[in-house]
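go over whats below:
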Amino acid sequence: MPAGLNHVPLLELRTRLRQSFWFIPLLMLGATVGLAALTLWIDWNFDLADLKATSALAWIQLGGAEGARAMLTSVATAIMTVVGVIFSVTIAVLTLTTSQFGPRLLRAFIADRANQAVLGAFLATFFYCLLISLTIGDGDEDPLPRLSILVGAGMAAASVLVFVFFVHHVARSIQADEVVDVAACELDEVIDAVYGPPGEAPSEAQARLPGWFDDEARAVRGRVGGYVTSVDLDRLIHIARERDLVLEVDRRPGSFVAVGDALLRAGPGARVDERTADRLRRCLYLGEARTTEQDLEFALQQLVEIALRAMSTGINDPFTAVRCVDRLEAALRRLCGLVPPPAARHDERGALRVVMPWIELPRAIVTVFEPLRIVAPGAPQLTRRLLEALRSLAREAPGAPALAALRHQLEGLRAASASFDDTTGEDVRRLADEVAAALEGAAARLEAAAPARA
């Protein structure tokens, strides 16, 4: 089973923690408490009063208890001021940029581990300086925690470098190429996680539900609403084997579920008590937004959305749209050589336990090309690139359903070329003829290979 379908509870927990802006900063604050305890223990158990007597440290002047406390307080105050200003300005910049790239930019900013680490570094410096300042006595006769104070000063200096890194990182993250690259990486990850290498695809007979299923099955309905983010197939098969059930999952990853909607059907329904229904509900994870853990369609739609926004009237950036098509074509070509997870899942004894369809190549082709060819009539550059992508996919399409989907998109792009002027239209129509020839050649190869497979 592909990696994205194994250990789903752990993967779901990792996703939720990664998308929370507080988790890494909280870990860094905990590490800061440990660092403060360590440096203070060293100060209290070793005599470091002669540290500045060494030639290398002779220039350090802590200024007594009052001066050290004032320095740490100033650092803590400055750090919180910087945090408030830079994150407020950054959110404002990102809010303006989402008009071009969509709301996923803000979600990516929150889930970015570098941004979380920057916030954690600032908060850790503030909290460390605050803790150490509380341990400094009122009089000069009290020993100073010299090492702790020096570590606080070092953390303040490191925070300046972190600030420079953060500005550079945010400036890169809002560039079109970077946004497209991040979305493409997420698409590659879901393909690697869910789709497996070429192999024996299950037959329709294996995926067909028993004849009694529709009459005897019971619908298990959701008690909360949201998007299905992932499905724990291993757990579903375990419960189905334990209760001798057959399950049909109505909601694959990416589907929206309202309160009371059917999540799945289980049969025979007489074997599904309320406890079993609760266990089955917990196998489908719901969230406020779609994720790319098991949802190929959403990963494709992210790049399509960027391309559509780039082609909007207010932006009109065909170069960004073409970059998106480059990445989408590469992903679809990868899918041509892979197989989706089987719709039918059996237990170790070969009994049918779970039926859940997944996104296959023809549906992925429609998801990519259908929205983009709507804006193609006013964009010859984008139209050419889409036709080139169709030509490339025609050479690698693994079956008749994929070829049929490609032919449908070709006809739509032919119609779009009617709005171009003579020179541009002729060039586009010539390219469309090449795509049609490639599709015919692919169909002939598949037909010739059919007797050999038989």
In short: The chain has a mean pLDDT of 86. The chain has three domains: 3-174, 204-359, 362-454. DSSP finds 17 helices and eight strands in the chain. Residues 239 and 279 are 8 Å apart (CA to CA).
